[in-house]
Amino acid sequence: MDFEVQRCTRRCHKTGRELAPQEEFFSTLVSEGAKVVRRDFCREAWEGPPEESLGWWKSKMPSPSARRVHWAPNDIMVDYFEQLEQEPGKQDVRYILALLMIRRRLARLEETQVDDAGIEQMVLYCPRRESTYHVAQVTLDDDRVGQIQEELAELLFADGT
User: Fold this and answer.
1) Spatial CA neighbour of 81 closest among 39, 119, 131
2) Which of 49, 128, 146 is nearest to 81 (CA)?
3) In sequence order, which residues have a C-beta less than 8 Å from that of residue 56 and are 6 or more positions away?
């Protein structure tokens, strides 16, 4: 099961007002059935994260000339990674996110092992959570890797350009 979440629309979800350059705003991730949806709110419309939100963060709208993109806070990334463990149809997304977390030094690869079913797994340790995770290694073609990277970028970039 795939999901697509668009980048920041640069508009407040509640008011529809366009977010101005350098304006602070809040983003949430909300599960709607099989989809994870990102919603952005201007400061005036922010009433705190919805009860059903998977995570939230505060960002600043980039100026039109800004080129640098920032990831959502590390805790949001780890929260989403943990949530994916409960969604067996998204093992490939969880695997790519695990690689991203290793790259960003949010987790480190401790070892690889083969489970009882013969599936090779990475054993990751996250010092931030003092937790160990087992992530099934999956084989993906280049197209699927690109799709997952785009999905994660759209979902977890704090500033969409």
Assistant:
1) 131
2) 128
3) 26, 27, 28, 29, 49, 76
Mind listing the pLDDT tens digit for each residue in 83-92?
A: 999 998 899 9
**pLDDT, mean over the chain:** 85
Distance CA 111, CA 43 (A): 44
Q: Which residues of 61-89 are buried (b: 16+ CB within 10 A; e: fewer)?
A: bbeeeeeeeebbbeebbbbbbebbeeeee
The C-alpha atoms of residue 120 and residue 126 are separated, in whole angstroms, by 19
> Is the whole-model pTM more than 0.85?
no
How would you classify the pairing of strands 108-114 and 35-42? Answer: unpaired
Structure tokens at 157: 């970039």
The residues, ordered by sequence, that sit 6+ positions from 99 with a Cβ below 8 Å of its Cβ are none
Here the tokens at position 136 are 């099934």
Interatomic CA distance for residues 25 and 60, integer angstroms: 6
